[in-house]
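In the laboratory, one determines a bound structure by crystallizing the protein with its ligand and collecting diffraction data. In a computational setting the workflow is compressed into a single prediction: the sequence and the ligand go in, and a structural description comes out. We illustrate the idea with protoporphyrin IX containing FE.
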Amino acid sequence: MTTLLTQHPLKLVSVLVCVILVIGVLKRRKPRVHIPLMVSAFLIDLTMVIYLEVRRGVVESIPGREMTTLLIVHICLSTVVLILYGVQIATGLKNARGNRRPWHRKAAVAFLITRFGNLITSFLIT
Ligand code: HEM
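The predicted complex, in structure-token form:
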């Protein structure tokens, strides 16, 4: 845990986001708890993406990297996660206004699989 905290602080933040997402889904019937948790997870993830781009230039570094299957899978998962955040926020806002969207639940499954896939592959990339 100490090694994770000192050497991989962003991975620890990513684990924290996944914990927030799991609690948020478990609290899906309580919008007053569910919405702030999901919005917080999104804002933390967005801050992490901006940090990685501004401080480490991850997108520009792609052409100079060895393109392993793992890295391609990780990039694809990360892109899908960002798109699905948009879907969840849009359908979630409609839910909150009383206009129930079946896609919120369906996309939630895909979102959670891809977000956890992103976490796992981030640990596997060296
Ligand atoms: C970002 C990831 C999110 C995931 C994985 C997620 C997941 C879920 C799931 C599985 C449900 C239950 C749906 C059902 O049983 O039909 C739900 C309900 C709901 N979600 Fe989300 N959600 C997310 C984000 C949001 C956001 C950003 C908002 C609002 C801005 C939101 C608002 C709602 C509302 C209002 C409900 C209905 C609660 C009720 O039963 O009264 N969600 N969400």
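The pocket of protoporphyrin IX containing FE is lined by residues 25, 28-29, 31, 34-35, 38-39, 42, 85, 88-89, 92-93, 95-96, 104-105, 108, 111-112 (CB under 6 Å). Keep in mind that any predicted model is a hypothesis to be tested, not a measurement.
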